[in-house]
Amino acid sequence: MERRGDLLELKWSDTEERLQGSLHPAIPREGEPFTLSLHVGNFQGAEFDGPLTITFQQPGSPALVTRTLTREGVNWHTELTPDAPGLWDLEVRYRNTHLKVLTARIPVSDQPLPRGIGWALIITAAGTALILGVRGVVRRIRASSTGPGEVSAPPAAVASSAAPAQDARPAAADTAPPASEPTPVPDSDMSTAPPADPSSGQ
Q1: Domains plus CATH for the chain?
Q2: Which pTM value belongs to this model?
Q3: pLDDT mean over 14-39
């Protein structure tokens, strides 16, 4: 077998005949038909006129497609549709001078995803990668802001360390001397005169 563009060429020969064929497309897909074309040529004697018998199945599978082909022009044509991906055996049988049995192993690919589902998977993967990248950048920024060897104190520790500073300010105010104190007046300077009589007009 040899691939040429979108065709898979099949070639076989012995001293009496040669078989040539092609599959289109070169790699069949699950659930999609492909075209098989065959031609048998003689090196001697009369031209082979058929028929050809083909079987198509997966190795070990009980499902088997068998067809007897008649000649159409110079070739034999048929369409086959594999129902599962994997390797399939294509067997060709014909009798000219004696029975010939030829087998080819055909790879069948998976059914492609619908275009909408394919784009959805691509967008989801891109969004996930973007989110992971942003998280990594944020972690690096946080790590660089704290610096190596620096550990930020928890809020409880900050509150407890600030409390003594607030308590120290009133203590400093208590030790300071008062701004002014009233001067005691001696007893001798105090007036002992009786209060004026309001009726005298003075």
Answers
A1: 2-108 (2.60.40.1930)
A2: 0.53
A3: 92
